[in-house]
Amino acid sequence: MFDIDEKDAAIVDGIVAAARSAMTEISHYSQEDADRMVKAVAWAIYRDDRALELAEMAVEDTGLGNVPDKITKNKRKTLGALNDLMKEITVGQQSHEPELGLTTYAKPVGVVGTMTPSTNPAATPVNQAMMALKCKNAIIISPSPAGARTAYRVRDFIHAELDRIGAPRDLFQVIPQPINKKKAQYLAQVVDLIIVTGDQTNVRDGYRSGTPCIGVGKGNVPVIIDKSADLKDAAQKILLSKCFDNATSCSSENAAIAHSDIYDGFVDALRGVGGYVCSPEQVAEVEAGLFQGGNINRHFVGQSIDKLFALLGWPAPSEDVRFLIVPQDSVGADSPLSGEKLSLILSLYKADDFEAAKAKAFEILDYEGIGHSVGIHTTDPSQPEDLAASASVARVLVNQAHTFGNGGGFNNSLPFTLSMGCGTWAGNSISENLSVKNFYNVTKLVRTIDKPEPDPEQLFSGFE
């Protein structure tokens, strides 16, 4: 389907064959053995010196985000995922329910290929590798070119830990240099499952490959600030979420929609945590700088606030400024600041009531980010239920810092992940957080049970 020269095809075929051989070597592994591999992969990035080295390398090579937050991401996501995974049965018999006549067995899906983004060149491969090896699969990483050196260093650390427990190294491999699109496309064709996180062109390629694919959608999170909200709490959570790793997360808030009754108070609360409210002239300058030729200017993505001010040609900001606020009225192609920005820039809208705020959030999502998520800050328990019942998204977060809650949190029940499915709304095969259940097949042993046959007269009642 995709063109590739024979030499590159042979390279990819070789590492896939090695992965299959490694899976054969561990075919006898128990759940305990699989769990030991998961812990080995987790320790490969969680150890303090390695988390630091990988964070520094990622920022140096990609120019995205910042070292302290990447350390936090490398450790927090790994710890959360490890905690989730240790609770799961993924090898052999999962359940036995005599009353239903069902016994369930988990089986590997095979060799997993994954395309990983430059925003998380260490955390994403490790997160997915933990899930894959938990189910006795092998995994092959196709990193972004900018994040390749980090991915190879991750490989070195994982191989060292696999050696320590006597597991085969080829369970975790990285496509060799040079990294290119054709190798990634061919990998997608020859593995058993392909997972694509990040660039939407790559997601479409994954689905076109003919291989079962899990691709994730684009983020552009709007968050509603109701008149009943705790404004200081909402502003503080938006600050923490928006500024984490310089807004490289797809779950970072991109727009806030505040009730008109508390709009001014909310603006004051945002100023109080470091928000810089742009004048109309400055909003125009931000739009012109951030969007060029209809696309995001990559020089703005994942940069510090000092760098943003320099790129805009503005005097250096005061020390208390953390992010930009760009007031907006409209949504769509003619208002590109209503879309995903991947930078320390928050669009701000005003709505006269909850219904208007909800309509504005849906308008934003319809323009960009459909299926991903939406947030709300409120003390009215009916509003989140209304929002969840009507929104075309996979996740609705209530009174949370979106970046920390959307991919799994220690204070919510979502599984820890760096890949969020957005359902058929965004052309995805899943509408949930990528989790370990996406990495195993299920066999059901089915026995007969005493079960009454349905009564046709009862089922067709009213249709006589």
Compose a concise summary of this entry.
This is Aldehyde dehydrogenase family protein. By secondary structure, the chain is α/β, with parallel strands linked by helices.
Describe the protein.
InterPro entries: Ald_DH/histidinol_DH, Ald_DH_C, Ald_DH_N, Aldehyde_DH_dom. It holds the Pfam family Aldedh. Keywords: Oxidoreductase. It comes from Octadecabacter dasysiphoniae. This is Aldehyde dehydrogenase family protein. By secondary structure, this protein is α/β, with parallel strands linked by helices. The chain has two domains: 223 residues, 3-Layer(aba) Sandwich (Aldehyde Dehydrogenase, Chain A, domain 1); 185 residues, Aldehyde Dehydrogenase, Chain A, domain 2, CATH 3.40.309.10. It is 42% helix and 19% strand. The protein has 16 helices and 17 strands. A seven-stranded parallel β-sheet has the order 10-13-14-9-8-15-16, sandwiched between helices. A five-stranded parallel β-sheet has the order 5-4-3-6-7, sandwiched between helices. α2 runs antiparallel to α5, α2 crosses α6 and α9 packs across α10. The longest helix is centred in the N-terminal third of the chain and has 20 residues. It is globular, with a radius of gyration of 24 Å. The protein starts with 5 loop residues before the first helix and ends in a 5-residue tail after the last helix.
Molecular shape: globular
The total domain count is 2
Q: What structural category arises from helix and sheet content?
A: alpha/beta
Q: What is the multimeric organization of the chains shown?
A: single chain
DSSP helix count?
A: 16
Main sheet makeup? 7 strands, parallel
CATH architecture of the largest domain: 3-Layer(aba) Sandwich
CA-based gyration radius:
24 Å
CATH superfamily of the largest domain: Aldehyde Dehydrogenase, Chain A, domain 1
Number of DSSP strands? 17
Beta-strand percentage range = 15-25%
What's the CATH C level of the largest domain?
Answer: Alpha Beta
> Could you please say which CATH topology of the largest domain applies here?
Aldehyde Dehydrogenase, Chain A, domain 1
Domain Aldehyde dehydrogenase: 4-270
InterPro entries: Ald_DH/histidinol_DH, Ald_DH_C, Ald_DH_N, Aldehyde_DH_dom
Protein name: Aldehyde dehydrogenase family protein
Keywords: Oxidoreductase
